[in-house]
Amino acid sequence: MPKTLLNSPLTGIALTLLTFYLGEVLAKKLKTSLLPPFLTSTVLIIILLLCQDKFTYKEYEIGGKFLAMFLGPATIALGLPLVKNLELLKKNLKALLGATVIGTCAGVGSAYGFSKLFGVSKEITLSLLPKSITTPIAMEVSADIGGIPAITIAAVAVTGVVGAVFAHKILKVLGVTNDIAIGFAIGTSSHALGTSSCIPISLTQVAFSSLAISFIGVATAILAPIVAMFMQ
């Protein structure tokens, strides 16, 4: 490939869009939700980058940075359906605040508990504490408490993928059918990636899942430093 094409941001953007489209086609062909397009896209791009040395991650990131710019606005846009559900929010505010406290303690507590169980170092443990919140907030929290933001990003990505793929199935097995409960649970545990899995199912789920992203983000930003101080 010409050097100018390799160094063009359009190459990385086009590759991302193409692999995402292939992921959508594959998911429809296989008729499964266990293979979301973003997961297929990620795997295909990693395979492509590893199988040759002409087009490296450095060149891909030139276009990737442009897409990353939209991460914040896209997360905020998920809150638009909430405007149509303000009455439901008012009616369920106490329950949602209680769920926020429990969800935050579960997210941070599970990271801390499993880290202690498997003998993970203090620095890695601190990096994992904000694993259940959206990436921009998680990076800031991780840096502030002494974690490694790069590891935090990886943990957030894994948490989001697992939630997007399995959350609805787990909640169905548990007999949870209320859209408010489903949406808030998914937003609490798997942030924006999990929320994206609610879009084709219910706008109410999207609204309360995006609300959970905000609530849990703020609550984790408060609780994680307290746990970090306790670890000192």
Tell me about the largest β-sheet: none
What would you call the structural class?
mainly alpha
Oligomer: single chain
- CA radius of gyration is 19 Å
What does this structure look like?
This protein has 232 residues and is mainly α. The protein folds into two domains: 3-69, no CATH class; 80-231, no CATH class. Helix content is 79%, strand content 0%. It contains 13 helices and no strands. Helix 2 crosses helix 3. The N and C termini lie far apart (52 Å). The model has no long low-confidence stretch (mean pLDDT 86).
Quick structural overview:
The protein has 232 residues and is an all-alpha fold.
Which helices and strands, and how do they pair?
Elements: H1 3-6, H2 9-30, H3 37-50, H4 57-68, H5 71-77, H6 80-83, H7 86-91, H8 93-117, H9 122-128, H10 135-145, H11 149-173, H12 179-196, H13 203-231
List keywords for this structure.
232 residues; mainly alpha
